[in-house]
Amino acid sequence: MDLATIIGLLLGAGALLLGIISGGGSLGRYIDIPSVFVTIGGSIGALIVSNPLSRVLGMFKYAKHALNTPKYEEERLISTLVSFSEKARREGLLALEDDLEDVPDEFMRKGIQLVVDGTDPEIIKTVMFTELNQMNERHAIGIKLFSDWGKLAPAWGMIGTLAGLIAMLANLQDTSAIGAGMALALITSLYGAIIANLICIPFTAKLEDRDKAETLVKEIVIEGVLSIQSGDNPRILEQKLVSFLPPSRREAVLAESAKE
Questions:
Q1: I need a surface site. Which of 54, 99, 194, 225 has the fewest CB within 10 A?
Q2: Which tens digit of pLDDT belongs to each residue from 183-218?
Q3: pLDDT tens for residues 89-130?
Q4: 149 within 8 A of 43, measured Cβ to Cβ
């Protein structure tokens, strides 16, 4: 579970509630079921119009990616690739087949298998980058869903506000109800703003961050596999791969390598 996401959601909701309570407001005034139907139901309906139903129904799956912290262990991947490079230079590329079953990363296992099979380097590169591009396309679906919802929710909040104002203006002769009617009309805009700025926009940014992190891992694997296939020196390979990591994480990989 990604604590940053959970803490952020709780902090945002808590700050909103604290602001309402400390301002002397009653929480009951901010709860209106028809406004929930208009804002959430209307925006999701529009989302279904602009996207396939199966994609919208899979939104919880994409939200799960934002709520969970993936463990890519880039340092371990680099160490594995360097050890494969060392073994390939000592015993030949075919010797790597004995260790394929112990490779937990499916993408790396597929790349090493292509190398063992003697596949042309350009074909290996094409196959692996095609898989990487397809992964980015799948990630883009979830990112687009939350981005679209973040645009639609405030719009439907405004629609609810306009509907409430029309109903209020139609009953102007009752001046005592104008204040309450105006407050009720604005609730839908509040709901739309909360959905967009506490859920949709942050989840969009979080999914983009997840996509960048996994893309980096795939690029490390591709560079490692192609270097193994071309017979690069293991030390050169290691230097190439650690360059993908931020400086603060490079030292751990190089220190572990020095011990060996």
A1: 54
A2: 777 888 999 999 999 999 999 999 999 999 999 999
A3: 888 888 888 888 888 888 999 999 999 998 999 999 999 999
A4: yes
DSSP for 48-81 reads HHHS-HHHHHTHHHHHHHHHS-----HHHHHHHH
| Residue 132 near residue 7, CB atoms below 8 Å | no
SS3 content of the chain, % helix, strand, coil (to 5): 85, 0, 15
Q: How far is CA 184 from CA 31, 43, 76, 152, 195, in A?
A: 9, 19, 56, 20, 18
Contacts by residues 158-165 (CB-CB < 8 Å, ≥ 24 positions apart): 158/188, 158/189, 158/192, 159/38, 159/42, 159/188, 160/35, 160/38, 160/39, 160/42, 160/185, 160/187, 160/188, 160/189, 160/191, 160/192, 161/185, 161/186, 161/188, 161/189, 163/38, 163/188, 164/188
10: Cα separation from own chain's centroid: 19
- Domain ranges in the chain are 32-260
Nearest Cα neighbor of 221 from 70, 100, 78, 119 is: 78
How far is residue 16's CA from residue 19's CA, in Å, rounded to a whole number?
Answer: 5
Q: Rounded to 5 degrees, what are φ and ψ at 104? A: -75, -25
| Token output for 23 | 């301002």
The pTM of the full predicted model, rounded to 2 decimals, is: 0.85
Spatial separation of the C-alpha atoms in residues 141 and 146, rounded to whole Å = 9
